[in-house]
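Researcher: For the record, we're logging two predictions in this thread. I'll number them. Prediction 1 follows.
Model: Prediction 1, sequence and structure:
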Amino acid sequence: MSHLSIGHLYTALHAACASAVARIIEAHGLEVSYVDLSEDERQEALENAEIDLLISAWTPRDNALGEGGGEFFGDVYRPKAVFAALERHKTESKWNASDFSKIIVTNEALEQAKTAFSSRDDLKALPLEVIGEGALIEKVQQAQNDHQNPLIITWQPHAIFHTDLLKILPDDTSLLGEELKAQFVLRAGIRQNMDDDLFHELSGMMLGNRVMSALDYAISVDGTDPESAAESWQRGRLIGR
């Protein structure tokens, strides 16, 4: 094997993860190519051998991606939908909807938010603003400048968690669902052709939510290209702004 084709969702977060993985693969002497995919294209790309490695699947939510014989492995980071408040807001460990003026939720977390609303009428009563994931930092900065006090619902990792704008609130009853696991998916039939050392190194690769948020920030806010952001991570320059 001299080449691996990496598929990933076309977001800064997934592109960053793919570039970090590519640096490991290239260090083992393999060439890498990238394929941008929508969520609906991932399974077909694996089954038709359009990609060799998918980065990444969020399990167990994405377990169906293994139905064509794909192999899940690794534990790269831990995605979680979270409640958050402005860092300056004095919120007790047991917070209430009455602490907030409105809810700001990203499109990607809207499904989880609706589940929470079905269990908490007090949340459902708050004004709701739905925004794109990329607009979250600007929206939170605006709320802070306007002395508003919104409750934020979004996924982490996210670029905003590489700033001091928000603090994550407890969700003791898992209103927004359980933590997921970001894993790689190898297409069927390719494992026997992959070098064992490479497979084991990727299996043990743990970026974590903090690094993923920093990578997302570098690409989506600073405008760094994914390859340069991955190089900064590998050289230990990414964390510690």
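Researcher: Logged. Prediction 2.
Model: Prediction 2, sequence and structure:
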Amino acid sequence: MTTPDPTRTARIVLGTAFTGAGIAHVVKHEFFESLVPESMSKWRKPISAVTAVIQFVGGISMFIPRLRGLARWTNLAMLVPTLPAAVAQTRHPDQMRALGVDPKLVIARIPAQALVAAATWWATRPPTAEQHQLPI
């Protein structure tokens, strides 16, 4: 008998969230471009576009067992470098309000993003020998 994979639900939730976020970056690109810090305003469009691709690819990869390593590194490569932008947003609450974002959500994003990064690391770790045969 095989042991149930405790990371399966996490991969489904994270994969759905990352894929949805990638799609949202395309559909609502003006909003996401406006979240790019002023210091990088010259590159807002490409940063937002690359983020959309990374999130979409990272999300889909969560569902494909052979691509778990790609999912891990793709998603972490997006989550870790965007933490400074999240911190920068906390220093501009009026700008966030003008975009329709509650400053409390901006503050909550920082620990939430760290938790998502930890969950991504955990959910995409190599499976044990028994779990290796399970789908997703």
